C-alpha cells in the first residue's frame, strides 16, 4: 500500500527541514491533536499513540542530507516506512512530501488506509507551518 501526502511549501531551507526531521523529538510538534502519547526512546526512535489506535514505535531507518529522511516501524508486525522527500526551491524555501509504504493484507489495508492518509496529511500540513 502506497500513500502520498500533498506537497507543501515550507518557509525554511531544505537543510533546515532535514535537520528538524532528523531529530525525533521534533515529531511531537507535528502530531495531530488526537495524539495521546509521545515519548522519545532514543536519538533515532520514538513511541506515539493516537486516540483509538495502538502504540507505534518509529525509528529513523536512513537519511540522505538534505533531501530525504526515512522512518520505519520498529516492529515487524506492521512493516512500513514513512519517507520525507525534501526539495530546496531557493529563496530560503523548500517543499516537502511524505510517502507511506506498507505491506499489509487486503483487509488490513482497507481498515487503515483512511486513518493513515489523514495522519500523513496532518504531519505534512504541520511541516508546512514550521
UniProtKB/TrEMBL annotation:
Superkingdom field: Bacteria
InterPro entries assigned to the protein according to its UniProt record, in alphabetical order: START-like_dom_sf
Protein name: Carbon monoxide dehydrogenase subunit G
Amino acid at each position: 500500500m502506497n500513500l502520498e501526502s500533498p506537497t507543501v511549501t515550507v518557509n525554511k531551507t531544505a537543510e533546515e527541514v532535514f535537520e528538524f526531521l532528523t531529530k525525533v523529538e521534533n515529531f511531537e510538534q507535528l502530531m495531530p491533536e488526537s495524539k495521546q502519547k509521545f515519548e522519545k526512546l532514543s536519538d533515532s526512535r520514538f513511541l506515539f499513540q493516537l486516540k483509538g489506535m495502538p502504540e507505534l514505535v518509529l525509528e529513523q531507518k536512513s537519511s540522505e542530507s538534505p533531501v530525504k529522511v526515512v522512518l520505519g516501524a520498529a516492529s515487524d508486525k506492521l512493516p512500513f516506512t514513512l519517507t520525507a522527500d525534501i526539495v530546496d526551491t531557493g529563496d530560503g524555501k523548500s517543499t516537502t512530501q511524505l510517502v507511506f509504504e506498507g505491506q499489509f493484507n487486503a483487509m488490513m489495508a482497507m481498515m487503515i488506509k483512511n486513518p493513515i492518509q489523514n495522519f500523513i496529511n496532518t504531519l505534512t500540513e504541520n511541516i508546512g507551518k514550521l
